[in-house]
Each structure stands twice: as structure tokens, then as C-alpha cells.
Fold:
Amino acid sequence: MGQLDEATFTALMARPCPACGNARLELRSMLDQWIPVMVADVAGDPRWIHDGEKFVDGTYRITCASCRHDMFASDDCPRCHAPGALPAALAAPTRVKVPKACPTCRAKELVVIAMVPSMTMATAGAGGKHTPRELAELGDDGCHVVSVTCDDCGEIASCGTACPVCGAAGPLRARP
Structure:
């Protein structure tokens, strides 16, 4: 699990801000995203590919949308728990370069899986699903490529055993 477990997340989301009573909450998370690319440029709409457990696992901040009180905050990497690694990771470029074509078959249409910083607005106690909004796009600092695949050849690039978010040495902890 991430620094925030599901029981604590559920409890935080069930109540309004303890500082001002506002029920609107802003959640910051690192989430998995599927991104189609052509010649290394985004070539369609990215799709979020996380489930509820991975959403909780990637959440690093829950803030009151009104008074900005942090109800939960962690600067540890949400993927591997490297202490204090998140601020640098959000400001750093990806370590995996997206090629313009598959090195084997030369296909120009590829798929990128990336860990993307996101923001989600939610109402405490309301439950339900909310759609995250990306805070960085492919090529921006903070958007970290996990892997690049070709439909015909499979995986052609990846972060290997290093953490895709902060680059800390593996092995990575298990994710839900």
C-alpha cells in the first residue's frame, strides 16, 4: 500500500475539513495513464487505467479546496516510498525516452504507460466516482514513462527495475 491506506482514505473522505468545515476536497495523486503516440507525439486521448486501490495508493495529498488545510500530505514517492522524493520527481523529466518508431519493425504508432500527476475534486461524504484531471502531459516534467509498447513487438522501452516516478533503485514494493 501507499502511505495512505484504504481505511484512512475512506475516513478522510467521509468528513469535511476539520479546519473550516468545507466539504470540497482536492486530491493530488500519481496515476497510471495509457497514452497513444505517433512519432513520439500524443496521437489521441489518453485514458486513466487505475482502479480504486491504485487511486488510493497514488494519493499524496488531500487538501481543503476552501482554506487549503492539508488533511493528508506525504512527500514520499507514492510508488516506492523513497523518503522525500516526490517534490523532485514532480519537477523532473521522465527517464524513459519515447522513440519515434519501434526499433524492430519501425511502426510509428506506439502506446505509452505513464505515471501522471493528477488533481481530483471531491465532496466529502458524497462517495461516488470522480474524474481526475492531469497536471502534466507526456513530455512535461512530472509525467514519468513506465513503458513503451509496440502492438507487434511488445515492450520496447521501460524504466526497468527502477521506480518509474523517482528513479530509486528497485525492487519496487508490490502495488494493489
Q: What stands out?
A: The two ends are 7 Å apart (CA to CA). The first strand starts at residue 24 and ends at 38. The chain has one domain: 6-158. Helices lie at 6-13, 52-58, 86-90.
